[in-house]
Amino acid sequence: MERIRTQLANGVYLTYLPARKFKTSLLSAQFVTPLRRETASACALLPAILRRGTVRYPDLGALSAQLDRLYGASVDYTVRKQGENQCVGFVASFIDDSYIPGGEQLLEPVAELLGELLCDPVTERGRFVSAYFEGEKTNLIDAIRSQVNDKREYAYARLLQEMCGEEPYGISRLGDEESAEKLQMKKLHALYGELLSTARLELFYCGSAPLERVRQALAAAFATLPRDGIRDIAVAEPHPARAEVKRVEEAMDVTQGKLGMGFACGSDDRAAVLMGNTLFGGSSNSKLFLNVREKLSLCYYASSNYHRQKRIITVSSGIEFQNYQKAYDEIMAQLAAVQAGRLEDWELEGARSTLLNAYASMGDSQGKLENFYLGQAATGQEDTPELLAEQVRQVTAERIFDAMQTVSLDTVYFLKGKEGAE
To answer: With 60 as the cut, is the pLDDT of residue 420 above it?
Structure first.
């Protein structure tokens, strides 16, 4: 798919993705700011408050009425972590102009609404509306607390916290409960002003409108955006491998154990590590899935993920408490098999096919495209799905073995039942 990236203003960039096969258009506006423990919860709270109303549409009812007038357009606020940056803003979806009768155009009014949501929120005595602040602060605290209810995601987050505890990568996209409870409206409003002035703004459009029209619509929508002292995005440093494996156990009232394992990667051959991880645990044809889960029935689920910005691989698995050592040993054995090159041809080509299909299907979803290119922009990359696919095609078995031999165990996290606690 064609992609054009252009700078609209100081620290404001547009990624233009022309596409005529969708019946909708997508427009996204995201502030990108370094992820910091002291501001993560505040940044996560901001878009929720901004979504409550603008000067022209001061409450949810007025906003909903305007969206109805725009043929049922939708605007959702987003809070994401990309590399070691936090991305907060809005994603709008609306009927593509080519499907609207009478030649009516929606791009301009939707862009205008996004600009108002970010730059012209409804205020009360020069600050956010106190009822909106208190309500959304409560919602954020509830969302942070509820993360523990999904034990699989909770264990995954805890593994990253323990593995990257001194690095921004270990911080949750929502921050933490203690920081959220301490949030004050005065400080939040000051942070909002700082973001408006200094944070990079990434804009994305996917639809049938020509580039110049999109440029003009967004330039007008964000014409009042103050720009002063734009901060650089945070560039993630590779995770330094530990000399001794860190082991953490936590006991909770759970019926299924969660075993998480974090590995440091010494290779910068990202395509080779990506292929190696796919062979190890990154697909339904991987060694973890076929052997640890299916053949040996040691796990309810077992998969691995490659975090290329940090050069780490994480393994997530759900196990019976008494199977901890067996599952641990077998996961390590399957990694050793990949490192030693004990692979069948069908495994290698299956992993390649899995990745190529994932890149090829990305163009079928506007949401996936927006998230992919936001990740590229927020981590200082210029890759496209087509470029990454070509890199995967060129990866040889020898490169995979060389890259995976640099992978070493770094951190082990085990969530067990209270009955097993010592």
So the answer is: no
